[in-house]
Structures are given as structure tokens and as C-alpha cells.
Amino acid sequence: MFADFIKRLTQPDPAPMHDLDARLALTALLVRIARSDNDYSATEVQRIDQIIMGRYAIDETEARKLRQDAEALESQAPDTVKFTRAIKDAVPYEERLGVIEALWKIVLVDGERAAEEDALLRLVVGLLGISDTDSAMARQRVASAG
């Protein structure tokens, strides 16, 4: 189902993504960070749904469907380096910065920072071309919002 999408996403020079494709790719990245510690909890699933409902102004049913599609895409997507670089090439910086904040929301949702989540988030920050300072500020915003 996602083979064509992944092929387009990982082309040497990917075209800018359509809005629905960008939503799917960015949600799959949220799923990937949530799964990185091998504990994909109900709390993380709920937070992903909340993030995408707010980010894309969609209802709960649409959010659940998008997350489920993203879960399937994430399981078929190439390694994080290729997947994230493709997103970087296809998504504007401002949106990528918002993704980093959303990723911090997933990492911090359970009150624990698993080493696997931290390591993956550090990798993704660099691959998305986001500065460490911008990432730290995003983390602080998320942490202070509770």
C-alpha cells in the first residue's frame, strides 16, 4: 500500500510533498520515536492523536485513521536516516521545527526520557537540519507546558 509513497519519498531528489503525504510522513516519524524504546504505550498513542488533531485541525476519527496509516508506513519505511532526510528535503524548515516540538511531546509524555528515544531524537534533529539550540528550546517549551 505504501510502496509507491516510500519510493517517491526516498528518490534522490524528492518532489515537495502534497499536504496529505506530509501529514502521513510526519505522523510516521512521531510513531517511530514512540516505538523506539520498544514500549509503544497507550499514552503515547493518545498523545500522537492529540498532536495531529491540533496540528491538522482534524477530528478524533480522522486522527486515529491517520495514525493507523502512519503506523503501517513506519513499519515499512526505510531506516531513519533515509526516511528523515527525505522529509527534510520535502518539508519546509518551519514545519520541521514544529515536528521537533511534537517529537519532544512524545518523548516526555510518560515522564521518562528513555535512552533510545533521546538517541533517536538527537539523530532526527540533526538529519532534519534543526539546530541543537532550537531543539533544546522546543524541549523546554514542551516541558514547561506540562
UniProtKB/TrEMBL annotation:
<dbReference type="InterPro" id="IPR007791">
    <property type="entry name" value="DjlA_N"/>
</dbReference>
<dbReference type="InterPro" id="IPR029024">
    <property type="entry name" value="TerB-like"/>
</dbReference>
<dbReference type="Pfam" id="PF05099">
    <property type="entry name" value="TerB"/>
</dbReference>
<protein>
    <submittedName>
        <fullName>Uncharacterized conserved protein, tellurite resistance protein B (TerB) family</fullName>
    </submittedName>
</protein>
<feature type="domain" description="Co-chaperone DjlA N-terminal">
    <location>
        <begin position="23"/>
        <end position="140"/>
    </location>
</feature>
